[in-house]
Each structure stands twice: as structure tokens, then as C-alpha cells.
Amino acid sequence: QEVFAADGAGASLEEIARRAEVGSATLHRHFPTRRSLLEVVFHDRVEALCARAREHAGRSAPGDALIAWLRDLNIYAAASRGLAS
């Protein structure tokens, strides 16, 4: 996630493997295409965003929860900007 956030969707898969401390072949075995890796990254990030929504809903008034979640969404969108390319 960090490499994609810094370098965008075209991030070097070799750099991703290096940062994950795995070999390039291992990365390709688990994620045969760049798209398959990006899908997992997006899924994990959306799951985290949904978890934040549940946290806010459980401890705040509805309006306050929505405002807090919209802040989280804004942070997510800014951090994901490079992945849209």
C-alpha cells in the first residue's frame, strides 16, 4: 500500500516485493497481475474505511458520526489519488 500510495498504480512491482521482503517470484505467484494486487490493496483500504464507519456509528450521534466518517473518506481519497491513474 505504501509503495502504491507514493508511486501510484504504476509502482514498481520489484520495489513492492523488496519492501514486503519477498522475492519477485513470490509476489507474482500470489498476485499474477498488477491488477490482482491493486484489487487487494483497494479491498483492504475500503474494508478499513468501512470499519471506521462502524466505529463512528457505535460511539457518536448520527450527524457527528457522518461528519467524522466524511473526514476519514477525505483522507482516504487524498491518499488514494495516485492509485486512480
Topology of helices and strands:
Layout: H1 2-7, H2 13-19, H3 24-30, H4 34-59, H5 62-80
Helix pairs in contact: 4-5
Describe this structure in words.
The protein has 85 residues and is mainly α. The chain has one domain (2-84): Orthogonal Bundle (Tetracycline Repressor, domain 2), CATH 1.10.357.10. The chain is built from five helices and no strands. It has helices at 2-7, 13-19, 24-30, 34-59, 62-80. Helix 4 (34-59) runs antiparallel to helix 5. It starts with a helix and ends in a 5-residue tail after the last helix.
Low-pLDDT sequence parts: none
**Any idea of the CATH class?**
Mainly Alpha
Number of helices: 5
User: What is the architecture at the second tier of CATH?
Assistant: Orthogonal Bundle
The CATH homologous superfamily is termed: Tetracycline Repressor, domain 2
Query: Biggest sheet: strands, sense, closure?
Result: none
Number of domains: 1
| Fraction in helix | over 70%
Summarize the structure.
The protein is mostly helical and 85 residues long.
List key phrases describing it.
Tetracycline Repressor, domain 2; mainly alpha; 76% helix; elongated; 85 residues
